[in-house]
Design goal:
The chain has 178 residues and is an alpha/beta fold. The chain has one domain (2-177). Helix content is 33%, strand content 24%.
């Protein structure tokens, strides 16, 4: 398990703000709205839903409706800055991971390999994990290039596709602004 962040509208070259009816404005360089995604992969070859954390105080379900292509099993959350935190780490463990592995565990214990990020390196996280027969194994923080394969193997391609999609919208936005 690992988390990654997306700067909203970031293409690596240009930024666009989108509305429900499509792109509207080019973003100024000072815009730093962030979305975090917590993902996990399974060595047992079954899916584990994503948790998407947006900046805000509330969200409307219509923003993430299934007809927009958002899988129904994803958990949508929010925080003041779009980042994960201790409470959201616990929500991920209890509402995403534990239900995803129920009935799929071979034996009694599961191993959860993750980075040493503070949002899942808490006593409460470890206690809930162990109560559910999950052994948390923390990799060293800030070592993604060496020990965290999700950063290199999964998130880099996801970010490339995200940026490509925003670039496509950027072309539309430039047309709308002229």
């Amino acid at each position: 398990m690992d988390e990654t962040g997306f700067l909203k509208g970031d293409t690596g070259r240009a930024k666009v703000v989108t509305g429900s009816d499509g792109p509207r404005w080019l973003v100024t360089p000072g815009n730093r709205d962030w979305t975090t995604v917590i993902e996990a992969i399974s060595a047992a070859n079954h899916g584990i839903p994503a948790m998407v954390i947006n900046k805000g105080k509330v969200h409307l379900n219509i923003w993430f409706d299934a007809h927009l292509g958002v899988p129904e099993d994803w958990v949508i959350a929010y925080s003041n800055n779009g980042w994960t935190g201790d409470n959201l780490g616990l929500i991920w463990l209890q509402k995403v991971f534990i239900p995803a592995i129920e009935g799929r565990v071979i034996g009694i214990w599961s191993l959860l390999v993750m980075n040493g990020h503070g949002s899942h390196c808490t006593c409460q996280f470890e206690e809930i994990a162990r109560q559910n027969y999950i052994v948390p194994f923390w990799l060293p923080a800030h070592s993604s290039h060496i020990t965290q394969p999700l950063d290199v193997g999964v998130f880099s391609s996801v970010k490339q596709r995200y940026r490509r999609g925003v670039q496509d919208l950027t072309g539309l936005a430039k047309h709308m602004l002229t």
